[in-house]
Amino acid sequence: MSRMRVLFGAALLGAAFVVALGFSGPTAQAYSGLHYQRGYYLDNGWLCYGWSSGAYHCTRRWHHSGTRLVSDNLSWVPNYGTSEGTGGRGGHSSGGGKSGGSHAISGSNTASQPCHSSTMFPARISQWTTPVSCYARIYRVNPANYVRRSGFGWCNWWPEVLHPRQPDILWGREYRHSSVPTPGAVVHFAGGVQGASSDGHWAQVVAVSPSRYWVLITEMNFSWRGGGWQRVSYRYIHVGPGVTFIR
């Protein structure tokens, strides 16, 4: 939960709306002429990906690479892991209960955080799987050990102090907003998405699973497993509607 509620939320939603309009030609979401299917699939010339939540994105910007279907519009229809090779017949499913790939991850960022274990993902992950190793713990951090930022205890304070050289990381227009997670990126959740309050929520990416669907995040002021006000915790989230990554 953030103290920067209306202003930043409105700015981000406005930015997302502009992006959607900017790609209205080659992209679609819940377009009346298209249908939902889990994973990757072709629909009347569109390459689509359907998430387990029932949401789906489609794009006309894609190409064949041998027998593979490859998206050329990664911010809208990402190429998750090896799913390019499974292509458009229902294809790759990286939703609930699938392997998180505990032995290989797509990079990580634990700088200035209380946990630095290299064991980040279990063999199987669902929305509320307790993180492995020291990421299962709840931490109290000393604000004196970080760059000075107002609002200690609120969710936005944690990603702000983890970016000491980018004081405007949450609202600066120079930063890229994407649906593709990368280690160290700030995460913004729209209201009500994956446990966020109606005002939205802020966090930071620690690591991305090999499937690029599941993401380990660190956050403050999230009430789960003993977390909450002025406490730092970790959990798994997945890419999907209402989740924006900022770099």
| N to C succession of SSEs | HEEEEEEEHEEEEEE
Assign the CATH topology of the largest domain: endopeptidase fold (from Nostoc punctiforme)
Task: Based on the coordinates given, report the CATH architecture of the largest domain.
Answer: Alpha-Beta Complex
**Overall pLDDT level:** 79
> What's the CATH C level of the largest domain?
Alpha Beta
Roughly how many Å apart are the termini?
A: 21 Å
CATH superfamily of the largest domain: endopeptidase domain like (from Nostoc punctiforme)
- Main β-sheet, spatial strand arrangement: 7-12-11-10-9-13-8
Q: Biggest sheet, open or closed, and with what strands and sense?
A: 7 strands, antiparallel
The number of E-state strands comes to 13
The rounded Rg comes to 18 Å
Q: Which structural class matches the secondary elements?
A: mainly beta
Beta-strand content estimate = 15-25%
3D architecture notes:
With 247 residues, the protein is mostly beta strands. It has helices spanning 6-22, 157-161; strands at residues 27-28, 39-43, 46-50, 56-59, 62-65, 68-71, 139-140, 177-178, 186-189, 201-208, 214-220, 231-238, 243-246. It folds into 2 domains: 6-17 and 98-246, endopeptidase domain like (from Nostoc punctiforme) (endopeptidase fold (from Nostoc punctiforme)); 31-85, no CATH class. The chain contains 2 helices and 13 strands, in the order αβββββββαββββββ. The strands form 3 sheets. A 7-stranded antiparallel β-sheet has the order 7-12-11-10-9-13-8. Strands 1-4-3-2 form a 4-stranded antiparallel β-sheet, with no helix packed on it. A two-stranded antiparallel sheet has the order 5-6.
